[in-house]
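Ticket 4471: requesting a sanity check on a complex prediction with pyridoxal-5'-phosphate. Repro inputs:
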Amino acid sequence: MSDFDFQPGEDFAIAMDERDPLKGYREQFLIPKIAGREWVYLCGHSLGLQPKATAAYIEQELKDWAELGVEGHFRAKHPWVPYHRLLTEQTAELVGAKPVEVVVMNSLTVNLHLMMVSFYRPTRARCKIVVERGAFPSDQYAVQSQILFHGFDPATALIELTPMPDESCLREEEIESLIERLGDEIALILLGGVNYATGQAFDMARVTRSGHASGCIVGFDLAHAAGNLPLGLHEWGPDFAVWCSYKYLNGGPGCIAGCFVHERHARTWNLPRFAGWWGHDEQSRFEMGPHFQPMPGAEGWQLSNPPIVSLAALRASMDIFDEAGMERLRAKSVALTGYLEFLLNHNASAKFSIVTPREKERRGAQLSIRVAQHGRTLCDALAREGIIGDWREPDTFRVAPVPLYNSYHDVFRFVQRFKAAIG
Ligand SMILES: Cc1ncc(COP(=O)(O)O)c(C=O)c1O
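Returned structure tokens:
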């Protein structure tokens, strides 16, 4: 519910932008234009915009590579061997973790598989995985393939949490009651922190508590939560979490991803895991010995030496997050999304409905708008005018005002154009 006294006129949007303490951050991003006018880009839930500083961060590494070749591993301005550590403190801060619990590596689905190799250990009695119905397809494929890999059948081992009839979102108490009911058959609970289709944010502390009370492993896919919501992973206590960095984190297309492993597993050396040399104890990594001894904590799951150019792009963005601060970003995000909801409701029509929960605790920046008919055509037509959201089959138009670079006026313009296009 909204705590704000929103007004429908354009002057309100202009006044809100003027007094927005974070308004200067928009200047730090490259906003695409159409006919000289900036797009209304409400698609940071899919691919965040490019910080202007990204090019300089990348150019530094290209320069060091050009001038130093292999010596750059140790003599670059920011030596490449420990380069990923430049992101550790900021990443830990971002997801509410201890530094030992986080690492940036690989991409999201790869990290999800690596985590399941270690944390999905099914037995005949306890082999099930719980996901939300309509989880992102990559997650569905990943969990199904892990179930098959262990010789079980997804038809019986995969449980999908399904909203009540006529509802779009899950109720937390339903999640709890399913866990209580089937708890001793469940090996792993894997939920999105924020569901990609509905925009529903889950109470991750509560899910973790109830999963652990039933002896289950709990993991989260934070693709739509990292950089969107303040997170407290260490305190909430899930066993693992994974996320990508190209949505709210603005790292760029396919940017290196993040991974969290709770401290309680940091030194569990006998956990099965798929190993690679970058996860090996750094003191003896270059002795090139044949026996794998993992680093403590999340770094022990690394496989390969990381892509420096991708890490450089992520640093550019994480420096902005660090300065702006997640709490301040969240405060603006709650207001911006509340304003979007207010304007949509002000222009209510039977032709669309908002499926994202109304309570701010149960959502992030994104609103998912169900469009009764011709939704994709509408989304494509708006995109041609530089009004950018995205379409998810069968009927969902997703839009997310992002507090770093979106303005209240963006939201105002979006609703004007949306209203005109839907007729
Ligand atoms: C919720 C969710 N999970 C997983 C993925 C897949 O990510 P990747 O292709 O980086 O592995 C996405 C991509 O958009 C996503 O939204």
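Notes from triage: The chain has a mean pLDDT of 96. Leaving this open until the requester confirms.
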